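Task card 7
Instruction: Convert sequence to structure tokens.
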Amino acid sequence: MDNARPQAPAGKPVSASAVELATLVEVADTNPMGNIHGGVIMKLADQAAAAAAIRHSGRICVTASIDQLDFRSAVHVGDMVVLKASLHYAHRSSMEVGVRIEAERLQTGVRTHVASATLIFVALDDQCRPVPVPAILPQTPEEQRRFARGEERYRARAARRQQEKAAGTAARS
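Output:
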């Protein structure tokens, strides 16, 4: 049996895994005011981000965290909610995916930016163990900016995990 660590596949451009998901907001998705529930937006953002992560890695991926979900304005019954997901950053087996959520008034075609989310996914092998993912190859200045900020956030999350681990070890001593 070979115990060598699997190698990450070659890098991919952001565009290779970008996803756009759209769905009509129905009454069952809304509160008594006719606005979509935040949890529905969260679920849709998770689905769109997962699709982008799976496309990028070619593996089943699980949500490790939702780092951020900021709501800007309401989405109403009858609107089309459009989610645009793309990878910002990839480390060994984890991927940061950004999701831009827009609402489209179907009668006018006007779109409004209603929310943004940042989610972290981990790619898994057939035994549910983390597996290497391709690097991100940012091509545009905007993709390069998102990559650099994603790398900063990755490092901050890693440092926070180390601090929490050290604090837990110290508390048990």
